[in-house]
Amino acid sequence: MLLVRVAPDNTMISSGYERYTLQCLGCFELEEHLVFNGAKSPPTPSPSLDAALDTLESVAEPQEAGATSLAERLRPR
Fold first, then answer.
1. Which of the four pLDDT bands, split at 50, 70 and 90, describes residue 37?
2. 1, 22 Cβ separation under 8 angstroms
3. In sequence order, what E strands does the chain have?
4. Which whole-number Å values give the CA distances from 3 to 7, 21, 31, 51, in the listed order?
5. Per-domain residue ranges for the chain?
6. In what order do the strands lie in the sheet with 30-36?
7. Are 53 and 75 in contact (CB under 8 A)?
8. Are 8 and 16 a contacting pair, CB within 8 Å?
C-alpha cells in the first residue's frame, strides 16, 4: 500500500484526527483510514487589547467635546 494523501479530519469533536488515503500498488484500489496523530492544533490567536479598544472607538457613538470615551478610560497608561 502506498500513502497517497493525508488530510485533516474536522468531523470529529476533538482535534488531531487525519484521513489517510492508501493505494494498492497491484490493483490501484483506494482505501481510507481515520488516524489519530495526537498532535494538538495550533491555538487560535486572540486579538490584542489595543486592537479591541480601537474597534470599540471606531463603533462608538460620537462624544460631547471634552468627554472621555470608554476606550480611553480602559486603555492602559
1. confident
2. yes
3. 2-8, 17-23, 30-36
4. 11, 6, 10, 44
5. 2-36, 47-77
6. 2-8, 17-23, 30-36
7. yes
8. no
What would the grid cell of residue 73 be?
478610560
pLDDT digits (tens, 9 = 90+) for 40-63: 555 555 566 667 666 666 655 555
CA–CA distance, 57 with 67 (Å, rounded to integer): 13
- The pTM assigned to this predicted structure is 0.46
Mean pLDDT of the chain: 74
Torsion angles phi and psi, residue 18, rounded to 5? -135, 150
Going from the C-alpha of 73 to that of each of 54, 62, 63, 69, the distances in angstroms are 12, 16, 13, 6
